[in-house]
Amino acid sequence: MSVEEFASKSYDYIVVGGGTAGLVIAARLSEDPNVTVGVLEAGGNRLDDLLIDGPNTFLNLLDKPEYDWCFKTVPQKGTQHRVHGWARGKVLGGSSAINYNMFSMASRQDLDNWKELGNEGWGFDDLAPYYRKSETYHAPSKILSSKINDKYVDPLLRGTSGPIQISFCEADTQWQQEMWPKTCINAGYAPPKDPRSGSAIGGFNQLTTVDPKTMKRSYSARAYYEPNQARNNLSLLTEALVEKIVLEKNGSGDATATGVKFAVNSTTHTVKVNKEVIICGGVINSPQILELSGIGSASVLQKAGVNVVVDNPNVGENLNDHTATGLPLAVKDEYPTAEVLLRNPELAGQAMQAYIEHKAGPFTNAPTTTGFVPLHMADPSLSEPEKHIQSLIAAFQKAHPDADPAGRNPLLARQLVDRSEAIGQMVLVGVGADISSVEFPSKIFVHDAPGNWITLGVCSTRSLSRGSIHIESSDPTKQPIIDPAYFSHPLDLDIAARSMLHALSLVAFEPMQSVFKRDAKGGLIIHPSWTKDLPKTIEEAKELVAANTVTEYHPIGTCAMLPKEKGGVIDSNLKVYGTSNVRVVDASIFPTHVQGNIVSLVYAVAEKGADLIKGKQTNGVNGH
User: What range does the record give for the signal peptide (predicted)?
Assistant: First the structure.
């Protein structure tokens, strides 16, 4: 559709952002032939792009403007003043087009926290049917099942007819997929349960968003847009940068959206809306669009030269991210890792041909090896863990009395001492990492150290550090200021250090123990980008965590779903406070973080959001 044709129409619903959530909303709303839906996406339509479709080619997408917004944070005091590169998908499908394909699940308490904070209808049982509605689970063959141990998956908790295809890879098996679950059992973990049961403790192979029939990435553009693109009532315009929502104050004092202003090739257009504008720009772009439209903190807006329409200082606050600390360790030559492909262009070319021609080989298999560790296993020697956690929270609260108006930290503290809840996620990746390249995500897994390497990542599950994202200019092409405030809360660094020491302890158990190379003294060999020896104490571990931490690419919270007086931007119907017809639906609405990779929750939230917009009763909905 031409820009002139798109802008000449008015739409019942305009979806700002054709990403992970936006295309779910567009597909579900356009199921009704009597409504019209227009979607504006800043990136291009790259359906059938080999680098997106390949399940294990995602590293080739990062830091490339045709796929990635290439965002940068401000220097982070908590990570030795480093600038962090934040890859976010600037393409149809958003970050679901460029992520690592890992498909995880929030715990029961993660989502029940949302309900306790004042969001009725957003607990675990409320969202479970929407997880199922969004997915189709494919069970592995008996041969693959015996290798990767998928027995923890309960098919009855999984979807059978949803758009997103989830599976384990039949075309390639890596040695760590077979060894990891056995190692975790030998380290004392109980056999894991399906995370859909509400708790995930232990080590296992996680599902991936890959269609096993085509061996292609299953993401929102492929799953939600492509099958519906011919609908007469669904219009999409790509490479269209939204500049602002056009708002008018109505008689009640609320602002009403009458249209959306956007630019294509530096030429500005305005398209009219009849019913609602639904912002699905993601954690960075959604607060940016609200602020550019005049919804946000009066002081921020005035400084940026934007007229204040709705004064809400909560917009862009509550930024919360998962951190990931990488432990790069040398493995013996007989255990192949991705370095084999990274250093040999001929082999990499052959692997790509195997994928293109036969849908086989290493580019078919996305990362699966993961695990979740509770505090009592991460540090069995910690005496009075509840007292320890409460003391750190109390000290921070005393120094920052206005930091937690919603009362989130007590809920998170309760989770951290719960034996069925994880304080950290472990991710085993078959390639070495050079964390000093943190500013450029595409370079983190490219390094010069000889030999084969794995990286054991130790990731947070629910951080207490909260930062912000704000505009500093009325120019929509200028990136906002991103400050995740990593490790600004001392408890996050403390938990990360304990998780890291625990992860190191796992390498003492077979079968993984025999995989690692050793130095002359029998010690593990750590990547030369690390400047110090492996830590033995909590204080040493804290120092190394601060020096070797990156984002896990799971930011949330900047348009939080909370009561306004508790820091909220939207209510539990996803409506932006102070407006009559603007909603936000994406990860920016998460009021608190959840464990693991978040794309599955974004799909579930968007599915529920679509029902709310349609006016459907969502509590107790039957999943399918």
Answer: none
Q: Name the packing angle between helices 490-506 and 538-547 (round to 10°).
A: 100
332 secondary structure, DSSP code: -
Domains and CATH numbers, the chain: 3-47+222-319+558-614 (3.50.50.60)
pLDDT tens per residue, range 498-528: 999 999 999 999 999 999 999 999 999 999 9
In DSSP terms, which residues pair with 204 in a beta bridge? 370
The DSSP call for residue 334 is T
Q: What is the predicted pLDDT for the residue at 121?
A: 97
Cα 553 off chain centre by: 5
Give the pLDDT of residue 622: 41
CA–CA distance, 201 with 449 (Å, rounded to integer): 34
Q: Which of 338-342, 398-402, 471-475 has the highest mean pLDDT?
A: 471-475
Place of tokens 């069995």: 380
Which residues carry a binding-site annotation for FAD?
A: 91, 242
Feature table: binding site: 91, 242
Question: What single DSSP character describes residue 520?
Answer: T
Tell me the backbone φ, ψ of residue 498, rounded to 5 degrees.
-65, -40
pTM over 0.85: yes
> In terms of DSSP H, where are the helices of 310-458?
339-342, 345-358, 375-378, 385-399, 408-416
Q: Which two tokens stand for residue 110?
A: 């993660």
